[in-house]
């Protein structure tokens, strides 16, 4: 192959690689990206049953219930406007408590959010960005109540 | 005084970097011989940053609470090792470490690089100074690590307990050395593009840096994966967390660069291509730093939640990457064409390797940044996790692994001996593995099944390059390649085994009760309180047996007081054929404790594979450097004899 043609082929191959990467990524994202919802979004019917998603909000005080097997819990998540019941089987993260922020990964099944994973904030100073505004609103609401 | 010394050293280093950058222009325009002073400036700059970093280590070691950074991230009552390691377990300290390594690498190049022409070296040192300058500005303006507090508080706020682990002591430094090692490849590429001297000499000068950075990135990723595995207590080894992707992306780019640089060094081909990869590799390092340090991610690692810093880092990233790409567009087309090669040859095999790695890189890049992009544009929040990456990158990685067996058998430049015949045995082994998985586990998912097949095939195919001649006579670099490729097969088998055969048990157990997981019977003996230097914990004692012999495991649930945090300390026992992984959770009102048990057959192969890949890199490095060291020595001997 002539050097000149070789360069053209290489440039072509690189462009095809970029194109393939973008197409693959778009295909993957359309099927596999999971959206973040709040209980209000779910109440408004924005989330579809069975689709992989994340649910974020505050764990409502007094809502955590343990099932008889000791490793399944039910609780409700609230964003101040609506609530969503959550079912989770597993050991909750160390920082998972009532009245703190949490993000659950899973899917909706007949109105209940069945969580595969629960992420709580990792230390006292850390707050997931998704919950940053929510926490601020929550605090503001409480101050108003007082 | 110590903190002020550090700050002064940092300002001086910044001044020298500016001077070094200016010298580059003077040198490249005229014929003033500034190469020698430039080398000295680069060395002085490296030394000054090392002094600054040493000062930071000292204030942390002495728990000097009058320094704001120490107050915010340390505490007088934690173990000494973590006091020192705490110096880089925070935003400012880790950025100082980054710039220290950057300047030290520049100094190293200035001291030892003799392979490129003086002009290219000067241009490369100028580029390295430009990089350092931006990060000095970032430190001095937006994140001064030496800021004081007045009055000095009595005790600090402590370090995130998740980070109080031996893993922290060497994990970030290893990754940073890898990231910043790629900066030298970047600077050399920029220098060579400026002077137009892109040739095999340049490739040979660049190769040890790329190889070294790549070894450290491999080790860093492997160690980080094991750290997440035992420290987070989730039993997973890779979460496709953006912070993990931030280290994977430079690794993918460096792997591609490592392969194409060999083509440039051996054959003088793929010139523009290799320069492009060098630019991309370090750009990915900066993207990684930006992702981790700007605090825009939801992750353990993102502790700097400060928009000013994010914007600053993003601006630096845009300037450097933009300038490098502009330079590439301007000079890339003027490079002479490289040496020609045929369609079936080692060169085109390496091109295919590069293309596939680039596609994987692109897929990971898009998946990692897409959520940020969507949120910035529409405000909508979404996350992209394991399902996406496994579905898209997994099959590509398998194809790549299959081709790894073929590439090294191809001859340089033209079609060599027929390779189909050589691959018969490995291919047969792969098919046998596939048939076995179908017989013993018909319900297995497709990816682990293919993983077993490709892994077994590659295990055999990767050693073929050694069998063509006397293995003991083969060059060290060939051994390195074989060991690294063999490591890929080992890691692949570990991942497949973990995905296919892991058994998990989650239940509440009262003392005396027995739980079964895989072949194991695990009995909870008792749960007792215990304490360490800065934590209290409950510790479960578990007796596990499978037939004969009993092993004891003691997982803990720890509570740290400053900052108030709980962590699970998993207890893991390694056997030749797998790991038993145990976690203790919360107490149950019935008097039992939550236990989570995993039996993970052959999971250790994942990290053994990673270690083998790094070892392969080290062998190749030794193979490349040994002749030079010997030559230097013999030259020195010769001189000594002559003047004696």
Any overview of this molecule?
The complex is a heterodimer of chains A (146) and B (644). Chain A is α+β, with helices and mostly antiparallel strands and 146 residues long. Chain A folds into two domains: 33 residues; 111 residues, Beta Barrel (OB fold (Dihydrolipoamide Acetyltransferase, E2P)). In chain A, 36% of the residues lie in helices and 31% in strands. In chain A, helix 2 links the parallel strand 1 and strand 2. The radius of gyration of chain A is 22 Å and the shape is elongated. Chain A starts with a helix and ends with a helix. In chain B, strands 3, 4, 5, 6, 7 and 8 form a six-stranded antiparallel beta sheet that branches. Chain B has a four-stranded antiparallel beta sheet with strand order 2-11-10-9, covered by helices on one side. Chain B has 644 residues and is of the alpha+beta class. About 1% of the residues of chain B have low confidence. Chain B is globular, with a radius of gyration of 27 Å. Chain B has four domains: 164 residues, no CATH class; 216 residues, no CATH class; 116 residues, no CATH class; 99 residues. In chain B, strand 4 and strand 5 form a beta hairpin. Chain B has 18 helices and eleven strands. The interface between A and B is large, with 51 and 63 residues.
């Amino acid at each position: 192959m002539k050097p000149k043609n070789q360069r053209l082929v290489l440039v072509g191959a690189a462009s095809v690689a970029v194109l393939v990467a973008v197409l693959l990524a778009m295909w993957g994202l359309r099927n596999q990206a999971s959206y973040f919802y709040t209980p209000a979004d779910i109440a408004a019917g924005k989330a579809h049953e069975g689709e992989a998603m994340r649910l974020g909000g505050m764990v409502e005080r007094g809502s955590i219930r343990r099932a008889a097997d000791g490793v399944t819990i039910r609780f409700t998540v609230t964003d101040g406007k609506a609530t969503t019941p959550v079912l989770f089987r597993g050991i909750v993260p160390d920082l998972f408590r009532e009245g703190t922020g949490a993000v659950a990964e899973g899917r909706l099944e007949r109105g209940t959010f069945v969580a595969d994973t629960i992420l709580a904030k990792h230390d006292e100073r850390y707050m997931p960005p998704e919950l940053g505004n929510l926490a601020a609103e929550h605090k503001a609401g409480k101050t108003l109540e007082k | 005084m110590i903190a002020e010394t550090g700050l002064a050293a940092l300002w001086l280093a910044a001044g020298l970097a500016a001077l070094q950058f200016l010298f580059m222009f003077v040198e490249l325009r005229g014929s003033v011989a500034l190469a020698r002073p430039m080398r000295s400036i680069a060395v002085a700059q490296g030394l000054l940053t090392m002094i600054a970093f040493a000062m930071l280590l000292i204030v942390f070691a002495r728990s000097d609470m009058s320094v704001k950074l120490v107050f915010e991230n340390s505490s007088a009552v934690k173990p000494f090792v973590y006091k020192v390691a705490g110096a880089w377990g925070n935003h400012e300290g880790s950025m100082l470490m980054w710039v220290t390594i950057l300047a030290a690498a520049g100094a190293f190049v200035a001291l030892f690089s003799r392979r490129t022409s003086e002009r290219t070296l000067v241009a490369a040192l100028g580029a390295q100074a430009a990089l350092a300058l931006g990060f000095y500005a970032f430190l001095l303006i937006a994140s001064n690590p030496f800021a004081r507090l007045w009055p000095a508080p009595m005790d600090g706020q402590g370090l995130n307990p998740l980070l109080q682990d031996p893993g922290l002591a060497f994990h970030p430094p290893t990754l940073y050395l890898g990231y910043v090692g790629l900066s030298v490849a970047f600077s050399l590429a920029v220098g060579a593009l400026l002077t137009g001297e892109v040739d095999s000499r340049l490739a040979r000068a660049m190769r040890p840096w790329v190889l070294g950075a790549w070894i450290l990135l491999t080790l860093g990723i492997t160690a980080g994966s094991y750290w997440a595995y035992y420290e987070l207590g989730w039993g997973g080894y890779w979460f496709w967390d953006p912070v993990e992707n931030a280290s994977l992306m430079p690794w993918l780019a460096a792997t591609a660069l490592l392969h194409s640089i060999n083509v440039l060094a051996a054959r003088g081909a793929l010139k523009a291509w290799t320069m492009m990869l060098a630019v991309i590799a370090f750009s990915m390092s900066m993207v990684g730093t930006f992702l981790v340090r700007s605090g825009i991610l939801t992750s353990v690692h993102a502790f700097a939640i400060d928009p000013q810093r994010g914007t600053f880092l993003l601006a630096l990233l845009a300037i450097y990457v933009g300038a490098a790409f502009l330079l590439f567009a301007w000079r890339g087309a003027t490079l002479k064409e490289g040496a020609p090669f045929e369609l079936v040859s080692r060169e085109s095999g390496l091109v295919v390797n590069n293309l596939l790695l680039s596609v994987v890189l692109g897929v990971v890049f898009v998946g990692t940044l897409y959520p940020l992009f969507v949120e910035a544009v529409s405000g909508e929040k979404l996350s992209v996790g394991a399902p996406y990456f496994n579905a898209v990158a997994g099959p590509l990685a398998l194809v790549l692994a299959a081709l790894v067996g073929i590439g090294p058998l191809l001859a340089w430049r033209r079609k060599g001996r027929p390779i189909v015949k050589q691959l018969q045995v490995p291919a047969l082994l792969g098919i046998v593995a596939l048939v076995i998985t179908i017989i013993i586990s018909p319900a297995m998912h497709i990816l682990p099944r293919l993983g077993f097949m490709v892994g077994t095939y590659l295990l055999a195919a990767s050693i073929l390059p050694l069998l063509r001649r006397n293995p003991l006579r083969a060059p060290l670099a060939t051994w390195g390649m074989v060991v690294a490729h063999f490591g890929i097969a080992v890691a692949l088998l570990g991942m497949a085994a973990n995905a296919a055969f892991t058994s998990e048990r989650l239940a509440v157990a009262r003392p005396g009760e027995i739980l079964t997981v895989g072949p194991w019977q695990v009995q909870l003996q008792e749960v007792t309180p215990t304490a360490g230097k800065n934590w209290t914990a409950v510790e479960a004692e578990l007796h596990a047996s499978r037939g004969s012999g009993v092993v004891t495991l003691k997982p803990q649930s720890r509570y740290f007081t400053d900052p108030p945090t709980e962590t699970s300390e998993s207890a893991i026992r390694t056997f030749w054929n797998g790991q038993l992984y145990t976690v203790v959770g919360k107490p149950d009102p019935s008097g039992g404790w939550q236990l989570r048990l995993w039996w993970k057959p052959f999971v250790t192969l994942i990290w053994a594979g990673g270690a083998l890949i790094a070892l392969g890199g080290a062998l190749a490095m030794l193979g490349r450097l040994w002749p030079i060291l010997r030559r230097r020595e013999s030259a020195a001997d010769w001189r000594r004899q002559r003047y004696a």
